Fold each of these.
Amino acid sequence: MQNIWENLPKPFLILAPMEGVTDVVFRQVVAKAGRPDLFFTEFTNVSSYASEKGRHDALDRLTIAPTDTPIIAQIWGKNPDHFSELVSALNKLGFSGVDINMGCPDRHVNRAGGGAAMIKTPELAIECIKCAKEATNLPISVKTRLGFTYLEEYKDWIPLLLKQDLAALTVHLRTRKEMSKAPAHYELISELIELRNEISPNTKLIINGDIKDKAETEKLHQKYPEIDGFMIGRGIFTNPYCFTDHTPTRSELMELLNLHLDLFDKSCKDQYRSFEPLKHFFKIYLNNFPGASNLRAKLMETHSTAEVRAILKQN
């Protein structure tokens, strides 16, 4: 089986997995605007898949659209046996790889022992990686942070992960405690490169944190040419075309919003989706043009896609 990580350009660009954002609907919108080299799914809890009650929701999160491929399934949890069960199932779902989230700062995820909390349980983290690798021929990667509480934790944590012979390692350049409030620690990039080169030179190293668009990745790559890839997260909220050099017009943003509405309605026919979370996306399309904030305020008062379309026709 081909290793997708070996077939990507350098540097490659990835849309960061974001809960409630990078679902199968929004990924299709991004693909229309200008897709990254690689998509990740939303987070899927391995223990949800292992339970009869949660399996349907887990599989819904793992839905793939034709425009998604290549795509990596991102999973999280703390039960090694559940990692084995879900990763084994992923072999048949069309994914190009599996990424284990060990960096999510959400307090509910952390209380459950997953995400960034795994930094505090390194032996368990290693066991979960091991079980995932044994359950599949797909390449296994990890997304993490520099530490949970203290920045210095990276000195032990990152080398430990690199020793697991991962296909790729994404490092969000902050600790869990810093959330997104502190600037990303770009000053550590050179040291991360040295650690990768020394411990696991075949592991692709990806940088995440405060990267807004393609132009910024090009500047970073010029400064750090040994970085293999860059992951953009919040930048998508200010420009859905962030993986391209294109500056969208108002009409292009409206076209994307209408596409999002159409895809949302189509998706609802197969799987119930609440309308309210859809409002989080309005700011992506309604910004940087005169009257955008007023129009966005009107849409925030709607209760259906039909109401949204009616307001858009009037504006």
Amino acid sequence: MSLVFCHTADWHLGRTLHGASLELAHRRFLAWLVEVIVARAVDVLVVAGDVFDRSVPPAGAEALFYGFLAELSRAAPGVQVIVIAGNHDGPARLSAPAPLLERLGGAARMPVRIFGSLGLDARGRIDPAAALVPLTTRDGALAGHLVAVPFLRPSDLSRVAVADADQPDTPLSRPGEPLARCEEPRCASERLVRDLVAHAIAATGQRSLLMAAGHGLVRGARLSPESERPLLGGDEAALSVEAFPRELAYVAMGHLHLAQGLDGGRLRYAGAPLPLAFSERAYPHQVVVGTARDGAVALEAVHVPPFVELVRIEGEGGEALDVETAIARLGAMTPCVNERWVQVRVRVPSPRPALRRELGEALAPSGARLVSVDLERAGDAALVPVSSSAYAELAPDAVLARVWSSVSREPLPEALTRALHEAWREAQLEQDDVLAGLPEASGGESADLEVAS
């Protein structure tokens, strides 16, 4: 029996880029994704986290998500949908409608499973059975199983540590392997993943296809600067490829926006389907379609059309342009068919209050939109954005580096960067916990799979 699955992640519904909303591009992407699922007779859709950009997404973003599910149930009855939470998603918020969706999904012949967090048993411990999902074809035939591992938060890892203290001799997924004490985040994460897979192997007897879906950082993968939110523990807490036992035929990962594969492609990041920062404008934006048959998985990248095009106007080496050259470059741009957003880097010898209006007027005939101006003043050590909205698109350490370089010629001290990371992670965790409990305020074309080296 064969099973066709579609792996996607990191939609970030509700995202803005320098104040400009990506809603129209997201709407077009989701409509395109329905077409791909129908055309390729997909049996299972796996969304590996970061469905939304914030713990409490705006109403429009939630409407997009649930509207997509409604349209998919109409266009492709029988398709199974599995969604796990990412580090941007609020676990409680994402999983709140799960019981309703499961019940309605049965009526509409589109089973939907949402995993905001790991399920617990009656003793308050992680229940591995709750993470195991049967994979079915559109006609309801069992074709395999998937281990769903949403983004692991400190509360999840603390439960692993408690389990270790109570059961120090519990074996891991590999028989005879000694149990390591889970005092470090990476150790606890790897122990948890292996235990979940070990339970799946024991429960299914490896009689059929076994896959997993996760969200987080795996060592050896390439990160996207200016885009991905730092994770608790950083590189030190990143999982190893070995944390995912070889019994898993495919591991569908989310979090990294650059599509890439590890371990010969067995573990894969689908990548963000849309560019979410100007640093991502040249990435291969795609979803992954796999066909599992006789224990083997064949993969194909289906490239997402450019629903929004990001263009950066700058010198050949990335340096800022003088005003006249920047205006000439903007004025020479050809008319655009799809949405085109432009960022320009400009150097000025003295204050020029009307600069943004001048640049916008030069760009107007092409139909593109000027969303960001990076301004370098004479004598500056680094580019300083004109508007504070530009800082909102940068990781905290990138903001600190820009500010530091504007007042000092020395490199940013490593100790200061590490201190910022720790403070940022603690603040973000506190913010996610608070926001998750608050009510909302009113207010394609295919090609061979690309692997980044």
Amino acid sequence: MPQELEGDLKVLYLAHDLSDAAVLKRTTMLRDGGSSVIILGFRRTSSPIENVAGCKAVNLSQTFNGGFVQRILSVIKEILFLKKHRQLFVDADVILARNLEMLAIAVRGRSLCPKPPAIVYECLDIHRLMLGCGIISKTLRALEGWLCKRACAVITSSPAFISEYFNAMSNVHLPIRLVENKVYPCPEIPASITARQTGKPWKIGWFGIIRCRKSLDILCELARTSNGAVEVIIRGRPALDQFVDFHKTVSTTSGVQFLGAYKNPEDLAAMYQDVHFSWAIDMFEEGLNSSWLLPNRIYEGGLFKTVPIALDSVETGRTLKRMDIGVVLPDISATTLAAFFNQLTPQSYRVLETQMDSIPSNSWNFNAQDCKELVNYLRFAEKAPRNDI
């Protein structure tokens, strides 16, 4: 079993899902930034996970996608029996808590320590239950605000999360650090990355966590009605609870392929180089979290000069418009998409690709210095004044 890595700052990372690619990325950044990391968390896999990025992982129970009630009960159970993990909290300089349920565990664990470590709240998605006007949403926001009185800072991944949620709706009053969903570690970028063959069939890649039923329906219709002019390649982890029959749909739709899971970042170059466009649209929580996030796929696709397709009414589209890149559409109706691909030529695609090539790679990926700066930020948080329970 991997041993705890040597480092100046001891970070206890509390993760909602030990198998999540974002948890792997953050752990790797913390490790490479010079900290010593142990991960304590739930898992969505049936088997325990012994390490993440070579760092020791301590498993709590198994949870499930969409099982919000089950997740709450699991958190309550772990809080009641958290003393068995007391030493992990005692040994930590900083607790980095991913999502609200882990923040609750962080606050309980911190209360067990004679010298309480700092808590930093990592919030990279805003769950829809946090955003309503009913009693449940108000209670969750009140709980989040109460827990954050025991924390030092917030890390989030999109400017819209700050403006639309933390500043406008939440009860959180903490310094906020923006850490975008950039690629790390950065894989080798092939010299031929901008030498794709252009022309029909135009290939759209939809990669990552596949959870948007509207996107699946639209992309299947586009491929089916394009007469072979458009193909759709899907890779990643489909949230099967969000679809009627995901596998049957993709296997019976002409022009659509599901190629399974992939390794991040090892497989990114081959995946993105094989497509012309990256589907950067997510309507899973339309008008809420999906309108505010900046998804991993715009950074991954950007790194490999793959042209993103986005909506102009959401943060992703606004960001791409500021950068003057991508295909930013007013809507993604069958008519709008068909019109775009009907007028697309190899020459017009080269213009889009040249625009992508003009963006420096550090807009899309983190480097070693970024990792050190993140760890230094946590170190500062560890020394900052805190509210004790």
